[in-house]
Specification:
The chain contains 17 helices and 6 strands. It has 3 domains: 2-147, no CATH class; 166-256 and 297-403; 263-294, no CATH class. It is globular and about 135 Å long. It is an alpha+beta fold and 464 residues long.
C-alpha cells in the first residue's frame, strides 16, 4: 500500500510538471456519457494506481481520457494471445499506458522507471513492445469504420464554377529524426531541403467530408524524396535506386463512385431517365442489354503539380496569386478552403503528440508503426473534438518554428566556424612569426667569420 501511494505521488508530480509545460491543454478529451466495463483481467501495478488520478493529470500524461484508454485495453485484451508461464512484472495494461505515455511525451522506458522509481526497466520495455503491435491491430480495425464513410457533394458559393465532387485531400508532412550516423552522401537522402531538417516524409489523405478523418497514408520515405514521387511511386533501378510504392494507388477504390452514387454525377434529366429505365427493365436479358453507366470518380485535391497520377479529376490549385493586381479566383478559394483540412489534421496531430515537436527518440525499427498509431489515434481524437482553424494555424506555427530552429542552428554554426577560422589564422600567424625568429637566429649562427675563428684555433692547437 505504501508503494502504491508513493507511485501515485510521483505520477501526480509528473502530471503537474507536464501541465505546467503544456500551459493547460486547450482541448480535452472527455467521455461523452460512455460507461466502460471493468477490464476482465487483473489490473497491473501502474494502471491500478493511474486510474485513481484526476482527469486533468491523466490527460497531461497520455493526451487521452481514462475511459478511452480503458476501452482500448478491453479491445486489446480480446485479441491478445494467452501466455503461459510465470506472471510478468508489468501486465498488458501497464504496457498500453506506458506506450501511450511514450508516444505522447517522447520519454522512454528508462526515463519512466527513473521518474516513477520503478524497478526492472527491461521488463517494462518488454511490456511496451508487446503492447505496440496489439494496439496497432485494434486501431486498424477501428480505421475500417472510418473508411466506410462515403464522400458527399460539396456546396459551392453562388456564382462559383467549381468541381463540387470532392473526395480526398492529401499532402505530405515531415517526421523529424536525428541526423543519421552514416556517410555524408548517404545522410543527404534524409535531408528535407524544403524545411531544412533531417526527416522522414509521410503522405496522408484526409476526407473532405466532415469530420475529416485520415483515411489513407503512405509508407515513410526519406526527406529528400519529392512529394510527387511519393504520390505516384517509383520503379526500382538496381542497385542504387529503390522502389517506392505509389501512395495514390490506394485512393482509387475509395474515389470510385458506387452504384448508388452514379446519379449524383449525372444531370437531373439523365438521372431521372436512368432511374425510370431501370424500373421498366426487370428481366435479366433486358438489364444485361442496357448500357451500363460510365465510371465516375470523386476528385482528389493536391498541389498544382500533382495531376495525372490517377484516373480521377484533379482540380487545378494555384498556391499563390498570379499577380498583386490579379487576386485569387473564387474557384481557387473554394478549393483551398476544402484542402485546408489536411493542414488542420497535421496541426491536431502535432498538438496531441508532443513527441513530434522534436526528433524521433526511439528505435528506428518502430517508427513506421508509431506513425500509423499517431494517425489513427488522432482520428479517435477528432471523434470527440472536430478540427478547427486553430489546428491549421498551429501547424503553420510548427513549420515556422522548426525552420527558425534550423536557421538559428545554422547561424550558430556559421559563428562557430568563423571563430574557429579566426583562432586558426591567429595561431598560424604566431607560428609563422616564431619560425621567422628562429630562422633569423640560425642565420646569425651561420656567420662565416665565426667559423674561421674556430678553424684558426684548431690549427694552432694542432701545431702545438
Amino acid at each position: 500500500m505504501h508503494s502504491n501511494n508513493a507511485l501515485l505521488e510521483k505520477l501526480t508530480l509528473l502530471a503537474e510538471t507536464c501541465i505546467q509545460r503544456e500551459n493547460q491543454m486547450e482541448e480535452t478529451l472527455t467521455a461523452q456519457e460512455i460507461t466502460i466495463e471493468e477490464v476482465p483481467v487483473e489490473s497491473g501495478k501502474i494502471w491500478r494506481v493511474v486510474k485513481t488520478m484526476s482527469s486533468s493529470s491523466f490527460l497531461s500524461l497520455t493526451g487521452f481520457s481514462v475511459a478511452f484508454i480503458n476501452e482500448l485495453i478491453v479491445d486489446t485484451v480480446e485479441i491478445s494471445p494467452v501466455l503461459r508461464g510465470p506472471k510478468p512484472i508489468y501486465t498488458l495494461e501497464d504496457g498500453i499506458f506506458c506506450l501511450l505515455m511514450c508516444l505522447h511525451q517522447g520519454v522512454g522506458s528508462s526515463q519512466i522507471c527513473s521518474q516513477l522509481n520503478l524497478k526492472s526497466e527491461q521488463s517494462l520495455r518488454v511490456a511496451i513492445n508487446k503492447a505496440r503491435p496489439l494496439v496497432h491491430s485494434v486501431l486498424l480495425r477501428r480505421q475500417e469504420s472510418f473508411r466506410r464513410i462515403r464522400p458527399q457533394v460539396s456546396v459551392a458559393p453562388r456564382g462559383v464554377q467549381a468541381n463540387k465532387y470532392l473526395g480526398l485531400a492529401s499532402d505530405c508532412t515531415p517526421i523529424l529524426i536525428h541526423k543519421p550516423k552514416i556517410s555524408f552522401n548517404a545522410a543527404k537522402e534524409y535531408y528535407d531541403a524544403h524545411h531544412d531538417v533531417y526527416a522522414l516524409k509521410v503522405e496522408v489523405a484526409v476526407s473532405v467530408t466532415p469530420p475529416h478523418y485520415a483515411l489513407f497514408w503512405s509508407k515513410l520515405q526519406p526527406g529528400a524524396i519529392a512529394d510527387f514521387t511519393i504520390t505516384k511511386g517509383r520503379q526500382a533501378i538496381p542497385p542504387t535506386v529503390e522502389q517506392i510504392p505509389s501512395a495514390a494507388a490506394q485512393y482509387t477504390n475509395y474515389l470510385k463512385a458506387t452504384a448508388s452514387e452514379i446519379h449524383l454525377f449525372l444531370p437531373p434529366s439523365s438521372s431521372s431517365s436512368t432511374s425510370s429505365s431501370q424500373s421498366i427493365s426487370q428481366s435479366p436479358q433486358a438489364s444485361s442489354s442496357s448500357s451500363s453507366p460510365p465510371e465516375k470518380y470523386w476528385a482528389l485535391i493536391q498541389d498544382s503539380g500533382f495531376r495525372g497520377v490517377l484516373p480521377v479529376p484533379y482540380p487545378r490549385i494555384i498556391t499563390k496569386p498570379l499577380s498583386p493586381n490579379n487576386p485569387t479566383p473564387p474557384d481557387q478559394l473554394f478549393y483551398k478552403n476544402k484542402r485546408v483540412v489536411v493542414e488542420q489534421f497535421f496541426g491536431r496531430l502535432k498538438k496531441v503528440f508532443k513527441i513530434l515537436s522534436g526528433p524521433y527518440p526511439f528505435d528506428k525499427a518502430t517508427i513506421q508503426t508509431d506513425v500509423e498509431i499517431w494517425i489513427m489515434l488522432t482520428n479517435c481524437h477528432i471523434q470527440v473534438n472536430v478540427l478547427s482553424e486553430a489546428d491549421g494555424d498551429r501547424y503553420k506555427q510548427w513549420l515556422s518554428l522548426i525552420k527558425s530552429k534550423e536557421e538559428s542552428k545554422k547561424r550558430k554554426q556559421v559563428v562557430a566556424t568563423q571563430k574557429w577560422r579566426a583562432n586558426r589564422r591567429a595561431k598560424l600567424e604566431a607560428e609563422t612569426q616564431e619560425f621567422d625568429g628562429d630562422s633569423q637566429a640560425e642565420s646569425s649562427l651561420e656567420d662565416p667569420t665565426l667559423y674561421q675563428v674556430f678553424d684558426d684555433q684548431e690549427n694552432d692547437e694542432m701545431d702545438e
